[in-house]
Amino acid sequence: MIRVIACGKAREKWMMEGIREYTKRISGYDKIELTEVSDEKAPESNSAAENEAVKKLEGERLLKSIKPQEYVILLDLAGEPCDSVGLSEKIQDLQLHGHSRIDFVIGGSLGLSRELIQRADFRWKLSDNTFPHQLCRIMVLEQVYRSFRIMHHEPYHK
To answer: From CA 17, how far away is CA 57, in angstroms rounded?
Structure first.
């Protein structure tokens, strides 16, 4: 089973349609689930300490959704880059070695708590670019779908 656990709700109609489309595509290969936890208001006037408190609270909410036996791939700008073929190999290797539940975790707009970073089994840098955390859901789902296409030797756009 693949889960995408994300902070905040996808609200834009086009985002929800994209999430539904890739969820449907992935479901032909594996069980897929999207879990959303609430995010915190974080005005630009927040102090550094207030922002850390927001990250900690959001991190706690995300951690509550993760079971101890699940493998956690955390989206992290300080993580390790992994291209589509590499991600496909990683998912396949995890499944072959008994990891039946893989969680892709997307933090809030301010970043990740230390506790969430410590829980990660793999920290994945999706790109050198910075994207809205809402958009990252669709990008992760697309990459997971592409990974299954690669694993099954099916055509995919290179």
So the answer is: 29
Q: What is the mean pLDDT of residues 60-76?
A: 97
User: For residues 137 and 153, what is the distance between their CA atoms, to the nearest angstrom?
Assistant: 24
Q: Confidence band (pLDDT; 50, 70, 90) for 158?
A: low
102-113 per-residue burial string, b: 16 or more CB within 10 A, e: under 16: bbbbbbbebbbb
Q: Put residue 111 in one of left, alpha, beta given phi > 0 → left and psi -120 to 50 → alpha.
A: left
Q: What is the CATH number of domain 2-151?
A: 3.40.1280.10
pTM of the model: 0.94
Backbone angles phi, psi at 38, to 5 degrees: -70, 145
Better-scored residue on pLDDT, 132 or 122: 122
**Residues 139-148, buried b or exposed e (16+ Cβ, 10 A)?**
bbbbbbbbbb
Joined tokens for residue 152: 């099954």
20-to-1, 2, 71, 96 alpha-carbon distances in Å: 17, 15, 23, 27
Q: Which amino acid is at 32?
A: I
Angle of the 84-96 helix axis to the 133-151 helix axis, nearest 10: 70
Domain boundaries, the chain: 2-151
